[in-house]
Amino acid sequence: MWAWALLVPSLLLVIALIAYPLATGISLSLHSVVLNRPGLGRPFVGLENYARLLTDQTVRTALVNTVIYVVAGVVSQMLVGLGAAVLLNRASRLTWVARTAVMLPWFMPPVVAAYMWAFMLDPRFGILTRFAGLLGVDTGGQGVFADPTLALWGVLLVELWRSYPFFTLFFLAGLQSIPEELRDATAVDGASRWQHFRHVTMPLLRPVILVASLLEGIRLANSPTLILLLTNGGPGDATQVMSLYAFQQAYLKFDFGYASSIAVAMLVLIIGFSIVYIRTAGGGRD
């Protein structure tokens, strides 16, 4: 009984911050809740909101964009983060300066990062736009974020710059935990640096890759902050993703019932993907 008594504060915190909001969201998805039409009340509609998801063309577009956004975002950040971690994994008096500089984008608020990049990629006076023009790259008169074919990749570029330090931090910690004796042993056996990296370092980094990629994938799927600030889902639905669409349904159209059904559907998809990913990557083996 004493152990359960000690767990009570933690259980109350879990109920208040996780269980209650989750139950409320599921309950809202089964009702019609339109805040700007209070006369309609909160009638129970069952699975009507979920049936609406299946016929909503915007949901289909947003789902495809979400998959592209998450996969491309995680892969690009992982590759750049791994490269940065390998370069920073050396003993030097000035290494801490380079490590601090690499981490600076991660510390920057999303609002600042979004408007800074929007200014640099502005079609009229953006410095990156002008530099691309000098190299013969034409981004079009409307700019990157107004071009339906480039807008999503432009947001991914900003996301890459801001979020790759997350992977760098994970990979750097993983690299520093690998004993130096392993490098000496493989060198004695005649292995090159690439062979050591491929057959020793990468397998040892596998748990780090699994955790970091899963956490970042979940964050990208649930956090449309940069998309909201840079394009607001446009032009058209070129950068529309599921989390942003749920936000727009709730706080622009005040349709909290339909927004909750989108959120619950995302929750189910993310849980299912996480289970499959962990088992496929070997995290579920005994």
From TrEMBL:
Domain ABC transmembrane type-1 positions: 63-277
Stored CDD domains: TM_PBP2 (cd06261)
Keywords attached to this entry: Cell membrane, Membrane, Transmembrane, Transmembrane helix, Transport
Record flagged with keyword Cell division: no
Entry membrane topology: Multi-pass membrane protein
Chief place of localization: membrane
Keyword Metal-binding: no
Subcellular location: Cell membrane
Membrane-spanning segments: 67-88, 100-120, 256-278
InterPro entries: MetI-like, MetI-like_sf, UgpAE/MalFG_permease
Family of this protein: Belongs to the binding-protein-dependent transport system permease family.
Name the UniProt record assigns to this protein: Carbohydrate ABC transporter permease
Organism name: Pseudonocardia aurantiaca
